[in-house]
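Appendix B, record 7
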Amino acid sequence: MKLKYIVLLILFYPLTLLGQASKTTLHGEWAFALDPVNIGEYNAWHTPTFPVQGWDKVTVPHCFSVDPRYQLYTGSAWYVRKFNQAPVPQGHRAFLRFEAVFYKSAVWVNGKKLGEHEGGYTPFEVDITDALSAENTLALRVNNSWDTTTIPGAKTRVNYEKENNAQVFPWINYGGINREVYLIIRPATYIQHVKIVADPDLLKKTASVQVRVDIVNADPAKKIVPVLTLYRNKIKVPFKGKLRPDGGTPNSLWIDGTLAAKDVALWYTDEPTLYEAEVIAGTDTVRTRFGIRKVEVKGTRLLLNGEPIRMGGCNRPLDYPHFGSMDPQDVLEKDLTLIKSGGMELSRISHYPVSTHLLDWADEHGLLIIAEAGNWQLTPKQMADPVMRKKFQSQFSEMIERDWNHPSVFAWSVGNEYPSQTDEGKSWTKDMYAYAKSLDPSRLVTFASMFVARDIIKKPEDEASQYVDFISSNMYGNYLNNLKHIHEVYPDKAVYVSEFGIRTDGVKTEQGRVDHLAKAMQDFRQCDFLIGASVWTFNDYQSRFPGTNPNGYRPWGLVSPERELRGMYYAFQEEFSPATLAFQNEGSKLNITVTARKDFPSYTLRHYSIACGSQTFDIAQLKPGESKSFTYEGPAVKEISLVKPGGFTVLKKSIQH
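Structure tokens (predicted):
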């Protein structure tokens, strides 16, 4: 293909109208029935004439595991929805898109089986064009059972695990259509993926922007030339892109160009600047947001835009009373506001792919996320099984292709707590690292190890952390010795504590947990190779795993299941604050000093403020170890607060008069 420059156009479309494509919501009311003995398909529950008038009515997104009528049910269930549809325009195709269905699903439209999917947290689409009519019956069978072939699932037999433990995984298999459903009408030639790599030149202040456009071309004889326009704050950004082919892939093209320094605003956790890319190919249009930032590991340091960062974080099991894993927007925003306000800004936030709503919020408000697919403690036999590898790669690629434009996602994780000291664990890590880089070489790759800190690991070759960009280690106590051991084995690698903490019932009082945290932070602050630490967990979560309390919860949380703040939340908020506040009363004056931490956490503060009574003192920038002082004169105040950009209060200090 001859390389050429493309002319950039500004075109605007309504939110649900992208070029000649349209998107219709199909969540809402559905008919629902359990199928505990799997008779539904045999008895044609999926056909338009099957009577579903007597079925229960549910509202999708729906999690049948927390619906009082089907509490904690495991097995097959059916969802049916009737809908009318105008004829699909000539030269267009119709697709069903499910944002997530847990765990296995099969789709019928008007009695025709059109597709199946395995994986509970990632989206999938089914082409239903040829099955559509004016009046339609959409049927979905879903099964949330698990065994040794599902991810997540049970373990094959191993000598290091009790059999009652090995048969379950430690969170609830929340079944159902847990996220949104859409009917999408696209041109027959359409944009399948848009991938953006925006890499700043930190010296020149410019940024290279590379956009890969994957096109499904219904007419291979017709060449489709994509057109790209970039926006910031809805204003067009000057950009000239050069087209180039993508190796041997005929339907993938790259658009490369450079943004001038005046048009570059870097994405930071305190300044989360976002851009929008609009790509037009034929009559199809796709819009996606992105940020310009450089995340890299140099030796034992993690750098964001060339600056070392060391941050606190959390793990947030997707669990809320009466909602299970549905994650409604008001709950999500409440949790993420608490997380941001608690200084938990660099997180391996879940054992499985999170919702796009969570990542959108993280993009907009400045969180850094390690995104992980569902390898939870797979055994050596499972990791060596080609079928299991293929299943994992399917779920992993669905996550990466959905999330690769989110600036909040800075790393991929290939699993949690698998036996990484075995040959199978090493092979898995090496191979999945390569697979992740083949899909997205622009991000870091890690995994959460429960072996790297153990005394059995004497040299790098003993354990799979040798293959990843930075080490992630789960540890529960003996923090300083564990971290020193890791550093002795891997002196040139950055270390991230992907899990640490203590249960509420592991101590006599909440103060015991606060004391545990204080000792952990004392240890963390002695390790300059530590880039972050993620508490297990932000919230309590339901489980069947042995050791769960009689009320059904594992009580690790900084907050209760209903999000009541425990003493540990306030302790974390103070310990994870990137700065300290000191004050001194001098008559009618209050002298306030803010000092950016230089041990842990540690990063440059931008645009913070101090709130004191009716007055606000702005802190333009404060590098680690630097201090600034302010004087308050006015009516007596009871407290002063350190406030992040966006209005997140991260630290409060009471004032005694």
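Remarks on this record: The first strand starts at residue 17 and ends at 18. Residues 386-403 form the longest helix (18 residues).
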